[in-house]
Amino acid sequence: MTFQFNFTIEDHLGNELIPFEDEDLTLYSSKESSVSESQKGKQGPRKCSTEQFDLPQYDFWKHESVGDAAPSQDRDSPLSAANSSDNLEPHKRQPGLRVAKEHAMPKDLKKLLENKVVETLPGLQHVNVSLVKTILLEKNFPGENIVSKSLSSHSDLITGVYEGGLKIWECTFDLLAYFTKAKVNFAGKKVLDLGCGSGLLGIIAFKRGAKEIHFQDYNSLVIDEVTLPNVVANSTLENGINEPAVKRGRKSKLAQEQFKCRFFSGEWSEFCELVLSSEKLFVKYDLILTSETIYNPDYYSTLHQTFLRLLDKNGQVLLASKAHYFGVGGGVHLFQKYIEERNIFETRILEIIDEGLKRVLIELTFKHLS
Ligand SMILES: C[S@@+](CC[C@H](N)C(=O)[O-])C[C@H]1O[C@@H](n2cnc3c(N)ncnc32)[C@H](O)[C@@H]1O
C-alpha cells in the first residue's frame, strides 16, 4: 500500500517559524570556539541561508552513562507494573519487521557533512534533504534503496519499507514552535525523538539542556544520511573541526566521551526490545517527542506499546499530527479513541492549528492509578 501527502515542507519553511530562544542555552555552549566560514576546509558543507543567525554551538557528545543511573521506576506501584517492561508478554518477532540496530557515530565527523548543503533555520541547522536524495539516487545507493522506491511509487510512505523520514514534515515545525511558546522544559531530561526523520525535535531538546537524547527512525538510511549529519551540523565538534587544536584533541575527546546522543533504526517493537534488553538499568524516557507518526492505524498498537514500555511513569509524550491523513486513514480522532479504549494514558489537546491542513498537538501522560 502506498500513500502520498499533498504538501511540501519547503513551502512551509521560513514563514511560520518562531525563532528559538537561546537564553537557557548558554549553559551548554561549548568550550571550543567555532570557526568562521572562511576557516572551514574546502570539503566542508556549504551553508545556504536567507538569514544568518549568530547561534551558540553545542557539544552533543558529553555523556553520562545510562547504566550508572538508578532506575526511575517504583517497581511496586500499580503504575509501575503497567509501565514496566518485565511484565509484558514476551516479545515475539514478527517476520518482515525491520530489525532494530544502534548506529555508532562515525569517527570522521567531517565526512558526514561531505556533499551536503546545510541550511539554517532559527536556532538550528539541517541538511538539505532533496540534495541528499539526489545524491543517493545518483550513487545508486545500495541497501534500503528507499529513494528510488519512493520515487517510482510517487509516495512518501511505503508501508513497511519507507516510512517518510527523508523529509521534514509539517508538524515538526508546529511542535518546534510549541516548545518556544510553552517554554517546554528539557533541562536534565532523558528524551526520545520517536520517528525522528531529520531529528530536529531531538536536536532542539538537546540544545535546551536535555541530559540525553535518543533518535529513532524506521529506516537506517535516514539515520545515516540525515539525522546523524543534522546532529553533527548542530554540534561543536563539527564547527571546530578544522582547528588544529581540535583536530589533535578530537580523537581522545571522542574516545573519552561516549555519546550523549544515540541513534537507532528499526521498527518500534524491535527498537523497544533493543533498548530494554541492551540496558540492564534502562532509565525510561522523561519525554517522548513524536511528529507525524499516527498516520497508519495499523501501527497504533505498537506505538501504544512503545509509549507504555519506554515512558517514565511521570513522563510525557508530546505528539503532533494532522487531524486526518487522507488516503491512509489515521488521524487524531482515531488515535485518541484507541488510546482512550486502552485506558492507560490520559490525552490532552495542547493546541489546534486550523490553517491549511488542520493539525493538532497532544500530550499523553500515564493515568495515575490509585
Ligand atoms: C511521516 S514520518 C515523520 C518524520 C518526522 N517525525 C517529521 O515530522 O518530519 C514518520 C516517521 O515515523 C517513523 N515510523 C513510522 N512508523 C513506524 C514503525 N512502525 N516503526 C518504526 N518507526 C516508524 C518513521 O521512521 C518515520 O520517520
From TrEMBL:
CDD domains, per the entry: AdoMet_MTases (cd02440)
Transmembrane segments: none
Predominant localisation class: cytoplasm
Low complexity biased stretches: 29-42
Summary of the function given for this chain in its UniProt record: Protein-L-histidine N-tele-methyltransferase that specifically monomethylates RPL3, thereby regulating translation elongation. Histidine methylation of RPL3 regulates translation elongation by slowing ribosome traversal on tyrosine codons: slower elongation provides enough time for proper folding of synthesized proteins and prevents cellular aggregation of tyrosine-rich proteins.
Similarity annotation: Belongs to the methyltransferase superfamily. METTL18 family.
Protein name as it appears in the record: Histidine protein methyltransferase 1 homolog
Organism listed in the record: Trichechus manatus latirostris
